[in-house]
Amino acid sequence: MKKMKRTAAFAAAALLTATALAGCSSSDTSATTAAAAADTTAAAADTAAADAGSSEKGVVYGIYKAGDQTWFIDEGAAAQKKVEENGDEFIFVDAKMSPEEYLKAIDNAIANQAKGIVTCIPDQTMSQAAVDKCKEAGIPIVAADDALQNDAGEKIAPWVGINAYVIGQANGDWLAAYAKDNGLVEDETSGLLILTMDTVSSCVPRAEGEYDNFTAGCPDFPTERIFKADYDGTTDKGNTAATSVITAHPEIKKWMVTGANEEGTIGAVRALESAGLDADACVVGLGAYMAKDEWNNKGADGTCMKAATYFSSDSVGTGSVEVLYDVIAGKDVPQETAVDAVVVTPENYKEVMGKAAE
Fold it and tell me: What is the mean pLDDT of residues 4-26?
């Protein structure tokens, strides 16, 4: 209101000046001055309208590939909190790992004139189509967790996620120390299983880091006792993949397992329990948001989930929205914003994770 009053006062002063000058100047000069005053008033009105439009409440969509998974539920909650702090409405959408559902959600966001979109895409080969749709509609989009990228693997939208290779390295280091401390390097009945998600760019470096640092830490561990199995990121498929390898290698009695996400490693925990091999097994998760449930409900000795890298879904959810609002404001943003992690165990997870451990 103060701005509008100042604008009105300025316009009135300009008009009075124009009237005063009319008595001592030519009619052309008077007309020109009055026209300038009118232009000033119109420009001020346009500015006020633009300011009002930018402050209007908008809608931000969070479209996640697996909205029923704990990670995305928590990430979406953090994103919603940040959006509402900015005075806007947040709509959470579960794409159910379906490309069709995902594109439908993008279309709905466009139809509802969304202020912006944060998203984890279920199939990265669809990235260009999603980005093109948003670009044509003038709606900013920011990728969370899994990058929006072209066929060459180059990011085509700002991305916020975890430092995948570093997290994999942390798991590999921890497992290498575990293998040496428990005499598993020389034990012919021990084996390492790495669950992979080779079609997801953000997950590939995790498995690479796990393998690289485990083999660097245990150079004498036979590579023929290192196994890999691919899955889609769900607990069920992680269970199926792990069960297949465990069944195919009955000579391995002491399994070490890690993977590409927490759901997959929990699937492996259940597979080892079903096979009766959990007592001598060691599983390391990624995220700790399901590992903490194992420790809370079963205690340290009641589960073969022995450790997990902890990285905050809150950090990714909040960070993705912060980057989105920077894009909306026309600021230059980094193409990559990564979150690091720390390994937690039943001994330190409550201290490290705080409320997230509950």
Answer: 35
